Structure formats: C-alpha cells, structure tokens
Amino acid sequence: MTLSVGVLGYRFMGKAHANAMARLPMFFPDAPDVERSVLVGRDEEALSEAAGRLGFESTSTDWESVVDEVDVFYNLGPNHVHAEPSIAALEAGTPVFCEKPLAPTLEEAEQMTEAAREAGDDVPAGCAFNYRFVPAIRYAKGLLEAGELGEIHHVRGRYLQDWLVDPDAPWSWRNDEELAGSGALGDLGSHTVDLVRFLVGSDELAGEIERISGHLRTFVEERPVEGSESGVDDAETRTVTVDDAYSAQLAFENGAMGTLEASRFATGHKNDHTIEIHGSEGSLRFSLERLNELEVLRGDDRGYETILVTDEDDPYVDHWWPPGHVLGWEHTFVHENAEFLRAVAGDREDGEFRPNFEDGLAAQRVLSAIEESDDRGEWVSPSVI
Amino acid sequence: MTLSVGVLGYRFMGKAHANAMARLPMFFPDAPDVERSVLVGRDEEALSEAAGRLGFESTSTDWESVVDEVDVFYNLGPNHVHAEPSIAALEAGTPVFCEKPLAPTLEEAEQMTEAAREAGDDVPAGCAFNYRFVPAIRYAKGLLEAGELGEIHHVRGRYLQDWLVDPDAPWSWRNDEELAGSGALGDLGSHTVDLVRFLVGSDELAGEIERISGHLRTFVEERPVEGSESGVDDAETRTVTVDDAYSAQLAFENGAMGTLEASRFATGHKNDHTIEIHGSEGSLRFSLERLNELEVLRGDDRGYETILVTDEDDPYVDHWWPPGHVLGWEHTFVHENAEFLRAVAGDREDGEFRPNFEDGLAAQRVLSAIEESDDRGEWVSPSVI
Amino acid sequence: MTLSVGVLGYRFMGKAHANAMARLPMFFPDAPDVERSVLVGRDEEALSEAAGRLGFESTSTDWESVVDEVDVFYNLGPNHVHAEPSIAALEAGTPVFCEKPLAPTLEEAEQMTEAAREAGDDVPAGCAFNYRFVPAIRYAKGLLEAGELGEIHHVRGRYLQDWLVDPDAPWSWRNDEELAGSGALGDLGSHTVDLVRFLVGSDELAGEIERISGHLRTFVEERPVEGSESGVDDAETRTVTVDDAYSAQLAFENGAMGTLEASRFATGHKNDHTIEIHGSEGSLRFSLERLNELEVLRGDDRGYETILVTDEDDPYVDHWWPPGHVLGWEHTFVHENAEFLRAVAGDREDGEFRPNFEDGLAAQRVLSAIEESDDRGEWVSPSVI
Amino acid sequence: MTLSVGVLGYRFMGKAHANAMARLPMFFPDAPDVERSVLVGRDEEALSEAAGRLGFESTSTDWESVVDEVDVFYNLGPNHVHAEPSIAALEAGTPVFCEKPLAPTLEEAEQMTEAAREAGDDVPAGCAFNYRFVPAIRYAKGLLEAGELGEIHHVRGRYLQDWLVDPDAPWSWRNDEELAGSGALGDLGSHTVDLVRFLVGSDELAGEIERISGHLRTFVEERPVEGSESGVDDAETRTVTVDDAYSAQLAFENGAMGTLEASRFATGHKNDHTIEIHGSEGSLRFSLERLNELEVLRGDDRGYETILVTDEDDPYVDHWWPPGHVLGWEHTFVHENAEFLRAVAGDREDGEFRPNFEDGLAAQRVLSAIEESDDRGEWVSPSVI
C-alpha cells in the first residue's frame, strides 16, 4: 500500500517534511511507502516551483478538496491556518500531521483536539514536536523511565535565538498575535514545554505541571515592514504584538520545581535549546546545538559523562551510520515521519502516535497559563484556564 | 601603622579570611599591615586550637569587649549573630567586615545599615560578597561598563550545590530559619543577587530590580540530628524550616528580564555559580567552578570566546603569577581583604569600599521580596517591602 | 542531460553515496541530474537487496562491462579493488570517483594516477576525501587562505577510534595487508594527511611535507575469525598484518612542524578526528564529532571563539536549513557529490574537481613514507620514495 | 624542631616556594616548622627588597657559606647554576630541593645525582616537578595504579605556550644554550616527561621509555636584546641557540606508544599542559589550565566523566576548602614543600621524597635522547646515551 500525502505549506517546514518522506525508503524500509501527491498553497508560481523541487506530483490552492482526497494531510502552514484545514481533514477521516504549536489560541487547540477525539483512534492526529525524536532525547527518556535519576527535583529548559536582536530586523507574521498567537513563547516555548512533558511528565516522575508563574516581554515594539527603507524617518513600520522573550517558573505535581525561558534576543545563540534535569540519583543535560551528545551523571559518577549517542543500539541509530558518525537536525523529521506514517498504516503495535493533538493541547494549556499569569501577575494553574 | 583585627568566627570563613590576611604582605605590599589580634568564639578549646593554627595572638569569648579594642572587626559568625556585634562595633567607631548574607531578616539588615550610616564614611562597613573580587568578574564588569554588551536584555544567575540531596544528611543551623534566616535563598542566592547588582545594576545598564516573582521549596522536611543513628525508626530528627531551593523571575528598571535559581539538591554540582548576560551587542558567561575563565561574545564575534583571565593586565593578576598560572577560590578573599583594609586605612582614593552594608541590605531586600512573592503567589516590588 | 552512474560497492560507502545522490535534486538543484543505473558486486542476493533499497535500476557482477556503459563510475569497494576497475574506467574515458585511500600500495596509486593523467582533464578522477567538504573545514580554509593565521608553525592531526581495543573483536579485511594495504594508517591517516594538505599545503602556508618520522604498532597480533567461538582454546584465528595505530612527526617546506596520530585502540573515542593549527597570528581547532563547530583564535582574540558554522553565508549551508540547525556526517557526501558531478558535467568554471587522483597519490606517498620511516628507524622524505 | 632554609633565587620560583613555606603552618600543621633564613642572590639591592617581601631573615651573596649553615637548601636559580651549589650542599650533608630541569646538560645531571647517591638516604635531594602534586594528577595516578585503565596503549603529552611567537619578544637566558641547556624542551618538556614517568612509568603500566624519535625547531633565530630599540635597523640582537618547540615519538617497554610536544609558539595558549592516556579499559585527560578537573572514562562509561577533584577525600584537598572550592596553580608548591620537608625531618614513613634527583636525571636522559635523535635523524634509546 502506498499512502498519498497532501501537504499544506512549502517553506521551511514543507522542505523539512518533504525531505523526511524522501529519505524513508532507503533508511526506514519498514515505514509505509508514501507518494508526495499534492502540495497546497496560495501563490501558484511559488507553489509550482516548490512542488518541482520537493518532489510533489501536483499542486492545489484549494485545501478543502485536498483533505478529502489524500490518505494523509500534513498541515505545515503558519499557526493561524492550523485549525480549520486540520479539523476538516479529521472530519473527513483523514489522518493529520500538524506542525507546532498546535494553534495560536487555546480555543482553537481545543476545537482541533475535539475533532481528533471524534475522528477516533483509527485516524491519527499528530503534532510535530520533532525534538522528541532526537536519539539523545529518547535515550534520556529511557534513563528517566528506568528510574536512573531517582526522584525528580529540578527541571530547566530554555531555547535561545537572536534573530530579532537587531531592531531593524523586519516585521513578519511571527511578530503578529493574530497570525502567530504568541512570539518566542509559542514558537520556541511550545517545544520546551513538550520536551519537559515528554521527559518527566509521567506520574512516576514529576507528573503534570500544577502551577505556573509567567513573564513576557517585548523589547522592540515597532519593526520596519520588509522592503521599506529602514533607517529613514518615514520608514513604514508595524507593531509587534507578541513577546520577544518569556520566562516561567513551574511547580510540578510531585513537588519538583521548574524554570523555563526562551528568547529571540539572546545575542550569539542561534538555536540553543537546552534541557537540564536534576533527580535524587542523577542529573542530565542536553543542548540542541550538540544534539548527538547527552551529558549524564548517575550512580557513583562524580561528574557528567559526555555521551555521544551514536551507538548502534541507541534509538534510531541502527538505521543510519556506524558509531561516531553524527546526525543532524533534519534526522528528527525522518524519525517522526516514520513513526507517524506507521501509525497511519496501522503498523504500530501500540497503535498510537505520540505526540498527538492531546499533547499539542496540553502544551497549549501551559503556554496560555504563562500568558494568563503574566497578565494577572500571579501564579496560575493550567488545568483551570 | 598596623591594624589590629578582631575576628568573630573560626570555622570555614574564619580560615578563609585569616589566610587572606596572612598572604597580604607578600602579594599586596601596598595593603596596610595587619595583626591578627583576637579570635572570638564560645568554645574555648576549639577557639584556642584555631587561634594557634590561624595565627591569632589571643582569644576571647566576649565580643563586646573586643569590638571596642580592635582597629577592625570581622564578623564571620553564623547569620543570627551578624547584627548585634556588628552594630556594637560600628557604634564604637570600629570598621566592620561582615560575612554575607548581611542578616537573617530584613529588619536586622536595616538596623545594621542604619548603624553603618550613623557611623559615617570614616568607618567602613563592608559586606563580604567575595565573588565581586574574582578577576574574571571584574573583567566582565569592565566590559559591561564600557558598553561592550550594549543594552541589557537578559540576566541569568544560578548557584547549584548538592550537599542536601541525601535525605539522611544531618540537620544543621543552615536548615533553621531562626539561625540562618533562609536556606539556599540566603546562603547562595545572596551571592547571585549581589553579583547581578554589581554587574548590571547601574543606571546605564539594567538598573534596579523593580519586580520579582519568587518560588521556594523544601524537598526534605525532617532531617536526622547529627550523631543520631540514621535509618533506625526512632532516629532523632529536627524540622527543616528553610528552603532547599528557590527560583525567581526579575523585571529590571530598564526593561531587562532576569531569572535566578539556587539549590542544594542539584545532584553532581558542588559549587556551580553561573552568571549569563545577553545584551544587544554581546553576551557573557561565567562559572565559579572555572573561575579563571570568562566566555565573551561581542562585536563581530560569531561565538563565545573562552578567555583565560590570567594576563598581567587583568584585575589583580599582576599581584600573583605569570599568564596561565591559574588562581583559586581563596584568592577572592585576599583581594577583598586588601581592598577593605585599604579603605579602613584611608588609602583608597575613592575612600569607599564596596560591597558595603547598603549593598548587603539591597540584596536582603531582594531576598525578602522573593520570599514575600512566594508567600503571596504574586509579583512583588523589593522597594515596597 | 542525466548522468548514468555505475557504483561498485554497496555497503557503508555505497549507502553513503547513494543517499548523497538521492538528495541532490531537492538541495542542490544546480547539480546535474543523475540516474543510479547499475550497482556492481559479487554476491547477487545481497546486491539485489541493496539495489532495491538504495534505488538502483539494475545490478551487475561484471564491472568490466559497467565501466564502459555508464557516464560515471564510482569505485567504493575495498582498497584492493580500487586500482583495476578505476584504471579500466579511465581508459574507457569514464570519469571515476574512488573512495580513499586511493590504493593499498604506492605502486597502484601511481598507476591509477597515471591513468587519470592519460585520460585528460575532460575525464575527472576524484578521490573521495569527504572531510574537505565539512562546512567548518571549508570555512577554516578560507581563514587560512586569507592569511588570518599568519605564518604556520604547528599542525596537529589525529583520528581516534576504539573498535579494535577488544582483543576478541573479529578479524576482517581491514586487518589484512593484502586487502587493505595498511591499518589505522591508511584508513584513518589518509583522511588526516589529506586534510592537512588541503588546509596548509599551499606554498603561502606550510607547503609540502618535506621529511617524516613514522611509528607503527600492532597491539593485537592474532584475532578470531568471525563466527568462530571466541574464548575457546581452539578458536580459529588469523594474523593481523597491519598497524593498529600510527604516529608521525612532520617537517614542512616552510619550516612548520607537524604531528599526526591515529588509533583503533583509543578507548572511548568513536570517530574523533581533530585538526589543530597554530600560526603567528592565530590558531584553530576542529573535531569531527562536533563537525558543525570551529574554534578560532585570531587578531586581538584572547581565547578561542567557538563558532557554529551554520550561517547562511557559510560554505554549503545556504542549501540546507536556517542558522543553528546542525548538519550531520552524511552531508559531506552530498557536498562532494554535487561538486564532483558538476565537474563531470563540465559545469564548474574552474573545470577541475579536487581532491583528485593526484591528491590521492600525494597522500599515499606520505603514508608510504611513514611506513618506510618506521621500517628504517629514521626520517624519510616522501618525495624520494 | 624548626628547619632553617636557605634559598638561592628570588624571582618567579623564589616567590612560589616562599609562599608555599609561608602557608604550611595554617594548612599543613603536620609539616615541620620552617624558618626562611637566608635568601641568596647576586644583586644586593634586588635581593634585599625580595627578602623583605618574601619573609626571609637575612640575605647572602655567597651560596658557598649558606649551603653549610642551613638545614635545607633550595636551588631555584637558572639552570646553569643548578649543579655546583646543589652538589656542594649535598657534600655538606644538607638536603637539597632543586628546580627543574635538574641541569642544563646530561653530564651535570649525572654529577648531581651521583652527589645525591653519595649523600645517602638521610639527605633528601628533591627535584621540584610540582605537577606531580596537583590533586587531579594524584587522583589519576591512583586510578592507574588500581588498574582501572587496564593495559596502557597510548600516552600523549603536550605543553603549549605562546610568549615567543612575537619575533620582537626580547632575548633572555631562556634562549641561550649555555645558560638554559635547551628551550621548550627543557623548560616545558621536562615537566611532561616527568608526569609521563610518574603516571605510567611503573612496570605494571607502560614501563620505561625504550626508544625515542625527536624533532626540534627554532622558528626565530635572532632576537632583540632587552632595552634595545626593536624595529630599527641597527637594533642589537642576540642569537637564539635553543629550540622554540619540540616533538617526540616514544616506544615504551610494554609496547605502548607515546607522543610529546611543547612550544612557545602556540598562539593563544598560555600554560596549556595536557596529558592524555588510553588503556584497554579506559582513558583519561588532564589540562593544567583546568587543573581542578580530570576527565575519566572507564568501566561501562560511554563518555568521559568530567570530575571536579575537590572532594574531601581527594589527594591533599582535606587540607583546604569544602568541595567545589577550587585550588590554583600555586597550591602544587605547598603540597610538594610539605612532602619534601617532611622527608627532611624524617617524618615520612617511607622515608623517601619523590621526585628526587634520580627522577630528574631520568627525565634529563629522555630530553637528551630527544636532542640526540633530532641530531642524528633516527630513533635513539635513552638508556644508551
């Protein structure tokens, strides 16, 4: 059986997923065959060029017809177009793989999740938090689930970029609340929240996030419109309506403490997503810019061991190259596509793909609680927003 | 002129300051001559042994007489004995060098600072935040003051230790609110708060901390009394009345954001005090466990430069060894003693020693705001507590 | 025009190059179209399975017919089959891309290079030293050529692995002089020698390697044959006839010094290839296990700057992902395939692909000099072997 | 009993040892009491100033009388004055502590060692290789002796500085063969050779160095005399008659391989002394610029563990500060002084201080073999020079 895939979005994420699908046959021969059938967008010229380059058989500017026709629908558009097409696809019984964050608002995330519930277990609805599929992160999860870190006391996550530190960096949809929902919080923070939930969210570890104190900041309030002459007095500008950075403090169900942070103003940091965990029996550290490595301290260790997670028995690594031959960022997409498509084809024993829309909604609830807490100046519980 | 020094406290800090004073003649010949005159404590036997080893001429169990007699009084006792002897000394016109945190409570810190104000500029009252005297930190301050990091956006400080992660680690005065004031917050957090104020507190940089959201946790509520048989059912225990860890979010006057954290439960970390700052033009990172190094990114740098701050023209380094011959933790005490004693002797052009009691109080106010915020579950301004 | 490619070898290197060719259309649209036409090998069953998985249209067990038919011939077999098919292809006017080291013996390397010379400039003969195509290495070369490191004084290269440290690790063709030529020296050392030549070999930098002192060691003389029961007394074993590790000292034309080293006995190191260079104006360091990074010190820098070489204007990076989205080991093959195939298609302005067979021969000459020096116990000049 | 100490040399090493002696009472109360009695030198003015600052009771320009009078004689002068006063002291039955390298020539080293042998076991003759006294190095030795690294295969040592990379850096005695013996080789290489011998020199580990191939280079042949106007045509210069850098390859008795290297031209490196060892069961790495750390891989470790060697049960650490409070370079002198003086006082159970003159001679023999090998262009055995 070959699955026909329709993909909405042909920029950064379109390329990342098209590449992932193209690489499955050689490296994940047990994943279902897929046909990159239709690429969906609005600008016909750009769409046509992208479809040729990314290996799609056809294009469409009408997502409504596409979600009915294909075996699987990938929603890789900007956040504000996540909800409607995804819901339509699910109502048509078409499995959906949606980029993160699930939606710009909690309300839309809830509607999407409700649609996924109604579509039922046979219609997978995945949320593409790709960092769950880094081998080092999977390896870390294995250690945590085996209890090697003991009782969890501290969780720390931060995601640092610097592409907006220049006040003349142009305005884009990512600076607009209507289109993006939020700024660093949704774009970067959603990744961190999902990783934290993935790694320590089980009842045996830290459990759910019970209470949150959030803090948001917009450092530059107006940005030049792309193409307008910056620096001149009458440069056209638009208002930034989202955060440039956020931080948060967390209290987990089991009593663990957490701190989160993300910024687009961390000068010198390009894609620096780090997770640190301290438990009663050990600690670990991960940094996305060195994604082949995991630092682990446990048992009788006196210091962190820097592990290159590229051995044959490390998660996913047997599909690739011998030990020490490092993987890149894009491999996370191959892994998540293999897993998601196997769920679509019913090839997974457990039947279920995670992270799903429920996970996307759970992350959204935390993000909303951070915003709410920032508004109110007090701690907020994500379960009651 | 030789200054006679009286020192209250002969344990960890007593040893650190006695060593510092002993090393001045060889390395800081421009510092005043000092005589380690009297060592003050309660346990005569231990006191006598310590006085011999630490090079003191005499001992006393009566601090009240000592503060009158000596030229300088060092208060290195536990936090709950900071206020009374320090105030008495200042009232007697004797300069005071007091260990941090200034006091277990904000009220006492205010009383001490008031005493210092009344004693006047000729009676220096220093608060021994020694990390201001790390060469790499001084070097960082120089960069910040020269504007090399531009406008400050983010400040991050954390201090990680792990000596209480074992629930059978015995109860000590550091676990008691009466004696210590607070736990990780006061012991470790006071250092971080002072460094943050030192580095970015000026009006041209981040300015004062305007608002704070704090979070405290005690992971282990009861600890065995030292010497009691741990693990047996009727082991004698005492209640832990202070925090094991804290975190905080900060909003600075200029709009910068901050996050703070400290813990005695960070498995594998012994004395890991790190400061990270992101400005519009650059970033820097410091870690106490590698205190000879500073990581700096600025100008056209694409990544952090790892600078070994041991060159001859680096702060204080000309007093020691050639480039690349690293210093240790204890050297910070030599530097602060040289500076403080020169202020006592009136040998400083600016006349003033910093950090002083005002700085100690300012830090205390931040710590209190963190506690208050944690109590109330909302943001608090340190200026209105 | 679509180039038909015939590939000899379907294991590790076959997979690496097939993957590279498969990825060209999406990421290097300016590279020529290629058809994976014929996969060549001896074991028909394994060959057929591999051809299916790696996307080849047909298979053949007869390389002699293939080298005539295809537009390009890739020789990815074990070292002892490099010479004959490559020479036959070149004689047929078919461009050849041959894996490293060029040949197991200097004599064969000379014959292959002679064949390449006779085939002429229109028939590219490339030697697949892929590490020249790491973005960070290209970036380093740019700095060196711009004179940013000044006069070169020291070059240091080492390549550490540990897969033979267990004396029960089975014998393979890589342990046999007939099949492999040499051990760590040829397999790992050839990479290091090529990188050193690439980076500092120009006349303006260190120039040619003039004199060499070499040292080889075989730590384990006998190894069990795969499948034989290890640990039992009558386990079948074979003699190891190559080196497990080598080291070398170099004297360059311009007076610079060098040290080289490789081992399969460096416990804990999987694929640790490092290059370090010190010049009068700066220094740099590279490690393959962190291949997205380059450490550089120059100009007024006081320490090494850790550069993440993933910016849009870094070599090859614009073809991939945004800054901070790291690449993996396999991307070096995509880069070298794009470059080589453009040379085959005549699409390169300079007309020439490097590293070519001349580079392969030059590296071979250095390796032979190391062996000769080890035999004779004295310094040897590579130019006179 | 108080030992009176006479010290020849009042510059860098004079200060380092005077400081060490001054710190013993507070931190090593079990070491003998010492009196800094006489400081010996030629320039009376400088000597007098130094004696005051370094705490000596008197000065002398006549070492011959001093070696008779004192209980212990420290020879901290330039290399060419090591032999005569040390031998005279030993002949007078006075214990000698001599800085490294033991002598500028092998011949003098042999004479000194012969004098030490004749003086007998009751007259300790120590050679001040202080890096044996770094806690992390002692800890490493403990691991090696316990067999935790298994059979030793590789040893790598290098010592990088950059203070001569500027061709206008002035000529000094360290550039003169008569006065210094050799350059980077003797000054830096002697430290590395001693550490290698200390760590793996026992019969159970790598054993003696059997064969050596050496390489020396002088990059700048003439240097300006200090004070002469550099850059002008008639600047007075002197010829550099020693090496600026050396490298060596080693073959050990047990079959292990080694590589050594040192340079005064390694731009950006100030005092970067690193040791790396690979054994069949583990590996370790040490760097002097991070001297509180040791990187260790052993047993089931998958990566190097970065150990902060500052725990109470680490070598010498109980004398200093709590865990995580790092030591500096100078502490190595305190440790070696404590050990040497206890040997002088007969307070050591084993009676013997190491490194002694035999160790100094053994290192000298290796250095000489490196020079000899460089001269002859072939491998040389240190035992037959």
TrEMBL record, chains A, B, C, D:
<dbReference type="InterPro" id="IPR055170">
    <property type="entry name" value="GFO_IDH_MocA-like_dom"/>
</dbReference>
<dbReference type="InterPro" id="IPR036291">
    <property type="entry name" value="NAD(P)-bd_dom_sf"/>
</dbReference>
<dbReference type="Pfam" id="PF22725">
    <property type="entry name" value="GFO_IDH_MocA_C3"/>
</dbReference>
<dbReference type="GO" id="GO:0000166">
    <property type="term" value="F:nucleotide binding"/>
</dbReference>
<keyword id="KW-0560">Oxidoreductase</keyword>
<dbReference type="GO" id="GO:0016491">
    <property type="term" value="F:oxidoreductase activity"/>
</dbReference>
<protein>
    <submittedName>
        <fullName>Gfo/Idh/MocA family oxidoreductase</fullName>
    </submittedName>
</protein>
<feature type="domain" description="GFO/IDH/MocA-like oxidoreductase">
    <location>
        <begin position="137"/>
        <end position="285"/>
    </location>
</feature>
<dbReference type="Pfam" id="PF01408">
    <property type="entry name" value="GFO_IDH_MocA"/>
</dbReference>
<dbReference type="InterPro" id="IPR000683">
    <property type="entry name" value="Gfo/Idh/MocA-like_OxRdtase_N"/>
</dbReference>
<feature type="domain" description="Gfo/Idh/MocA-like oxidoreductase N-terminal">
    <location>
        <begin position="4"/>
        <end position="121"/>
    </location>
</feature>
<dbReference type="InterPro" id="IPR050463">
    <property type="entry name" value="Gfo/Idh/MocA_oxidrdct_glycsds"/>
</dbReference>
